[in-house]
Amino acid sequence: MNDQLSLIRAAADCLSLQLKGRKPVAGIVLGSGLGKLADQIEDPLVIPYGQIPGFPVSTAIGHKGNYICGNLGDKCVIAMQGRIHYYEGYGMDLVVLPIRVMISLGIQCLFVSNAAGGTNLAYHVGDLMIIKDHINLLPNPLIGPNLDVLGPRFPDMTRAYDPALIRKAEKIARKERIAVQKGVYVAVSGPCYETPAEYKFFRLIGGDAVGMSTVPEVIVARHAGVPVFGMSVITDVAHATEDDDYVTDGNVIVAAANAAADRMTVIFRRLVEGL
Amino acid sequence: MDARIEKIHVAAEFVNKAISPLLLKGRKPEIGIVLGSGLGRLADQIEDPLVIPYGKIPGFPVSTAIGHKGNFIIGNLGGKCVIAMQGRIHYYEGYGMDLVVLPIRVMMTVGIKKLFVSNAAGGVNFAFHVGDLMIIKDHINLMPNPLIGPNMDHLGPRFPDMTRAYDRSLINLARKVAADQGITLQEGVYVGGTGPSYETPAEYKYFRLIGGDAVGMSTVPEVIAARHAGVPVFGISVITNEAHDDYAEDYVNDGDDVVVAADAAAVKMTALIREMIERL
Known about the structure:
Helix content of chain B: 25-40%
Structural class of chain A: alpha/beta
Oligomer: heterodimer
Largest sheet of chain B: 5 strands, mixed, barrel
Strand content of chain A: 15-25%
Strand content of chain B: 15-25%
Largest interface: A-B, 29 and 29 residues
Strand order of the largest sheet of chain B: 5-8-7-6-9
Shape of chain A: globular
Number of strands of chain A: 9
Order of helices and strands of chain B: HHEHEEEHHEEHEHEHEH
Structural class of chain B: alpha/beta
Helix content of chain A: 25-40%
Radius of gyration of chain A: 18 Å
Order of helices and strands of chain A: HEHEEEHHEEHEHEHEH
Distance between the termini of chain A: 35 Å
Distance between the termini of chain B: 37 Å
Strand order of the largest sheet of chain A: 5-8-7-6-9
């Protein structure tokens, strides 16, 4: 068997055993500072990545490295508390491994969240942005022999973010009186933050927010035909980087993400409950 | 010796040996042609074809993309001896850039004086329609550069010029032939992306904003390797899907459609390239 497939199968088999018969219907990737949603998962089973064969240990600030499986509302979900980032030096195969493992377990929907810099000048720190589309400036995770059992050689990306889930999220936001933006997420490798000139570049090409994750995960989910919903918390904004004394600081970003966590948690929770 | 040079030489020697009956008759491939997705029909027009499967050539990987075979075909087209690549090696298949451009460098070592490249591409320009042919007048490379690494000085310079990557006189010839044959040609800038997932609508818009007219997953590395060695290039794309601003609910971008659209335009392209070669 293909090495990559064996890696996915071995990890999925191990995780499946530890889930003791639970069948999660949705996968959730908890981005920077958004770990609060994890606290709302009832009857949680926590499986550290370190216990799963082939998994690297996530190192980013604000991240832990665990799968958490339990109930959100009346739905069984599996959440990734901490993701694997490309900037940590892992190959794309590893970056998307946890997603493929969740897909192997049978999730029917993937929810992804992240902290992102706002390139759209109308955005403010703490804004929530529904991801309506992306521009991928990272290496494509599907480069290499196609894993035909997972999906097609040339997957369509016309509607990478499920239009029905976007409509539902907008409805929830209106009902809960949560303001949301809707925009295009630009994915870059990092790990240095973007220069003001780069922010301008991303704005010129149609980007509304920029971050260092999410898109590889979305591409492999769509490769496998799994519908995706994505949301960003805007943790810093483009125009601020033009100020003489501006510094982009990772801790400030985590604080901004934490401040928005309650609003985002409500939207994700309601979306999952409505599945 | 540099392992990459060794590899090119071993493969070129194999090809030279395979075509030695032709060489003995004083026929030597002078033009290289890369046949893109679904454009294999031009291969059927090559007279007295000698077929060398890539699998038999030392160091060659086997091409896996849909709509592609993996052979060199050597024979006569438009009265000239040509070597055609039926199937190319794509970066998205997971091969390193050295392998992606290996067949081009082998053809150059065998002695081609000009390179014709073709591909199937997505229309970025709103004015393009499925089945249109687009002369590639320039490109934007969003793939890794195939010349990264120690320079192979005997092939070309460290910093090759890309001001006229696509030969002006070949473009003029194409315009003339197209006018004579009543073929309408678009002209534009080809954006080379890695794939293999198709582009999102936001990515299409990005490519349009930066000046792209069509987008595909090949060609540019080959052109860079050829221009590094000073070989003039002519490039042409078949537009296999149209750009939209707003996508219909049921729109899907699908590889089978790409092959079908490319086949339909193949007749026009075959006639064009054949006649261009004849008039060279």
